[in-house]
Write a structure and sequence with these properties.
Structural class: mainly alpha
Strand content: under 5%
Distance between the termini: 23 Å
Length: 150
């Protein structure tokens, strides 16, 4: 049973790493569009938008690398969950305020025509990602992890 839980944890860890890679790399490759996406949420002053747009892709990539390595697994999962909760709050506030934006979660983002939003699907997807993070927080022991070697 322990071995099966280790396998599930490893899959959760790699799944969460894939989320961060697929999210961070497109943002890093297109910083101008990342700025547009962050600005579209209309919650930060211009300097805050610049800072978030500049730091966010690299934070996501760093989380992915640490998860792939299995280094500081529980702490990285906690940071991942916190970041995902910030993303959920951003989508919820955009939806509540009637903004018509693409979340920019995996690159792109910014204003879209009314009726072209996907807030419900984005929140469900993020809930799934939060479940991955929660699993790794509760059970950080995984296979092929640097943590198990330390």
């Amino acid at each position: 049973m322990t071995r099966a839980l280790d396998v599930v944890g490893t899959l959760a860890r790699f799944g969460l790493a894939a989320v961060w890679l697929l999210s961070g790399v497109p943002k890093a490759l297109d910083p101008d569009q990342t700025y547009v996406a962050v600005r579209a949420y209309d919650v930060l002053p211009p300097l805050g938008v610049e800072l978030v747009a500049a730091i966010l892709p690299w934070l996501e990539i760093a989380l992915a690398v640490l998860l792939l390595l299995g280094l500081g697994t529980r702490a990285v999962a906690v940071v991942s969950a916190a970041l995902l909760l910030v993303f959920v709050a951003g989508v919820v506030q955009a939806w509540a305020r009637g903004l018509s934006i693409d979340c920019g979660c995996f690159g792109g983002g910014g204003a879209v025509e009314p009726g072209r939003t996907a807030y419900g699907q984005e929140l469900l997807r993020d809930a799934g990602f939060l479940l991955l993070a929660a699993w790794v927080i509760v059970r950080p022991r995984t296979l092929v992890a640097v943590d198990s070697r330390l």
